UniProtKB/TrEMBL annotation, chain A:
<feature type="transmembrane region" description="Helical">
    <location>
        <begin position="174"/>
        <end position="192"/>
    </location>
</feature>
<keyword id="KW-0813">Transport</keyword>
<comment type="function">
    <text>Probably part of an ABC transporter complex. Probably responsible for the translocation of the substrate across the membrane.</text>
</comment>
<keyword id="KW-1003">Cell membrane</keyword>
<dbReference type="GO" id="GO:0005886">
    <property type="term" value="C:plasma membrane"/>
</dbReference>
<keyword id="KW-1133">Transmembrane helix</keyword>
<keyword id="KW-0812">Transmembrane</keyword>
<feature type="transmembrane region" description="Helical">
    <location>
        <begin position="135"/>
        <end position="154"/>
    </location>
</feature>
<keyword id="KW-0472">Membrane</keyword>
From TrEMBL, chain B:
<feature type="domain" description="ABC transporter">
    <location>
        <begin position="8"/>
        <end position="235"/>
    </location>
</feature>
<dbReference type="Pfam" id="PF00005">
    <property type="entry name" value="ABC_tran"/>
</dbReference>
<keyword id="KW-0813">Transport</keyword>
<keyword id="KW-0547">Nucleotide-binding</keyword>
<protein>
    <submittedName>
        <fullName>NitT/TauT family transport system ATP-binding protein</fullName>
    </submittedName>
</protein>
<comment type="similarity">
    <text>Belongs to the ABC transporter superfamily.</text>
</comment>
<dbReference type="InterPro" id="IPR027417">
    <property type="entry name" value="P-loop_NTPase"/>
</dbReference>
<dbReference type="GO" id="GO:0005524">
    <property type="term" value="F:ATP binding"/>
</dbReference>
<dbReference type="GO" id="GO:0016887">
    <property type="term" value="F:ATP hydrolysis activity"/>
</dbReference>
């Protein structure tokens, strides 16, 4: 390929990207416009975008929004970090030792099919109504998706890499540390991404059921008073925060697995 | 004076995969001596057990019965005294070329500065100096295999076991790498066991070509290649080369070789 070809190509790629972003913005404006129009002509009893923006400023101004965001984020982060920090070693253990796998896997497979939210009644009865039961169900959500991903990652490590390390004189421990861990990283990060998504979904739902703070709680309160703008503000906040967290894990994934051959595998 | 001990010895090696009615005899009564400094190539149809035999010497597959000795020691598992080069390159994709080459050196406990110098030497030997800090995904197939060769040489093994190392490469790259392999060999005279399905390659590289047959996998013929080194283009086109090549070809592909 000549240099001009390459330049041409990169210009096309850039234009392509710009077009995608442009279309996204246009679509967004159209959507909001449609929403505004629908409320303007009174064909729906939803709040107008303007009402929602005003409420957003109110809630941000008196700090309520940030208190709620902080409460929800705190639960998610504690639950998620606890979940993955226990899931990864257990996943490795299951992938590496047949005994551990045989003993642990049935439990994981069973609990995996129970939605973490279904644990809430049990958690509240046994752990009380403070933070513990909420963090516990989030922990469970993050743990279950990450443990399965880690375990799959270890099981799927290409035998050739292990053999290549063995013939160079690597012990089991070296193979684990220098081959199994990096080779399963892409799987683990996919697990983190799914785990964080499911933790976020779980926290909001848990707050709807039993909480005195958080975005879910705020919506539940607003529901009692027919306060639709507050529900909208909370929903948008949940969406934006979820997106940001997903992107952060996505970026970390891109960075940590930049050695992967994409598209050809 | 007594003959020096062969570098690699297979004595009545059998390998059966599985048990009971599903068992499959991959290698039957395989015996072969490979002398120090010799290049032995092994050819045969797929399923003839040529890779299995090599993997037994590498210590990656345990034999069912018989004996396999490398440098007088019974093979009990893999080790850095036997460098292995795989068809799928098997470079660690998360490590740069340099780190891949240093991998085995690190395991040998060689200090970082010395490691770097040694790695640099072998990276230069295979002509990858400009790519020392590149990840494998940036390399072509031929470059990946050169990196794998550098990684194997870096730990200074006593023998090299190569399992169809050039099988996935285009014809031109393959010929280049064959020439480079022989050039390196002419300097260090390292014992090489080279598995291939390419008859030309087998004859071009070898002191002796081992022809294997399938079902069950076994040694069917040993063909001596009485051609001088260095193997030039004239040799590749010589009548003698073509004669040996035809003999190997018939050994591999004739129906007779396949009948149990």
């Amino acid at each position: 390929m000549t240099k001009t070809d390459k330049n041409k190509r990169s210009i096309f790629v850039r234009m392509d990207k710009l077009a995608t972003i442009g279309l996204g913005i246009i679509s967004f404006i159209l959507g909001i416009g449609l929403w505004w129009f629908a409320t303007y002509v009174g064909s729906t009893n939803l709040p107008s975008p303007i009402d929602v923006v005003i409420r957003c400023f109110e809630l941000a101004g008196n700090g309520q929004l940030f208190v709620d965001i902080f409460a929800s984020m705190r639960r998610v982060l504690i639950g998620f970090l606890l979940g993955v920090s226990i899931a990864v070693p257990i996943g490795f253990l299951m992938g590496w030792y047949r005994l551990a796998r045989g003993l642990i896997e049935p439990w994981i497979q069973f609990f995996r099919v129970i939605p973490p939210l279904a644990i809430i009644p049990l958690a509240i009865v046994t752990m009380g109504i403070d933070e513990t039961p909420k963090i516990f169900v989030i922990f469970l959500a993050a743990f279950l998706s990450s443990v399965v991903a880690t375990f799959q990652g270890v099981v799927n490590v290409d035998r050739t890499y292990i053999n290549a390390a063995r013939v160079l004189g690597a012990s089991d421990w070296v193979i684990f540390r220098s081959v199994v861990v990096p080779a399963s990283t892409p799987f683990i990060l996919v697990g983190f991404r799914i785990g964080l998504g499911s933790a976020w979904a779980t926290v909001v739902a848990a707050e709807l059921i039993a909480a005195q703070s958080g975005l879910g709680f705020r919506m539940q309160q607003a529901q009692l008073y027919y306060d639709l703008p507050t529900i909208f503000v909370s929903l948008v906040a949940i969406g934006i925060l979820g997106l940001i967290m997903d992107r952060l894990v996505g970026r970390a994934d891109e960075y940590l697995t930049r050695w992967q051959e994409k598209g050809t595998a | 004076m007594a003959q020096p001990e062969p570098k690699i010895i297979f004595r009545h090696v059998n390998k059966i995969f599985g048990e009971g009615p599903g068992a499959f005899q991959a290698v039957k009564d395989f015996s072969l001596d490979i002398a120090e400094g010799e290049i032995v190539t092994v050819v045969g149809p797929s399923g003839c057990g040529k890779s299995t035999v090599m993997n037994i010497a590498a210590g990656l597959i345990p034999l069912t019965d018989g004996e396999c000795l490398v440098h007088g020691r019974e093979v009990k598992g893999p080790g850095p005294d036997r460098g292995v080069i795989f068809q799928q390159y098997a470079l660690f994709p998360w490590l740069t070329v340099r780190k891949n080459v240093e991998f085995g050196l690190k395991l040998k406990g060689i200090k970082p500065e010395e490691r770097r110098t040694l790695a640099e030497h072998y990276i230069e030997m295979v002509g990858l100096s400009d790519f020392a800090d590149s990840l494998p995904k940036m390399l072509s197939g031929g470059m990946k295999q050169r990196c794998a060769i550098a990684r194997a040489y870096a730990v200074d093994p006593e023998v090299l076991l190569m399992d169809e190392p050039f099988g996935a490469l285009d014809a031109l790259t393959r010929v280049r790498l064959q020439e480079q392999l022989l050039e390196t060999w002419s300097q260090d005279k390292r014992t090489i066991m080279f598995i291939t399905h390419d008859v030309d390659e087998a004859v071009y590289l070898a002191n002796r070509v081992i022809v294997m047959a399938a079902r069950p996998g076994r040694l069917s013929k040993i063909i001596k290649v009485n051609l001088p080194y260095p193997r030039t283009d004239e040799i590749r086109l010589s009548e003698e080369f073509i004669r040996i090549r035809n003999e190997v070809w018939r050994g591999v592909y004739s129906r007779g070789a396949d009948a149990a």
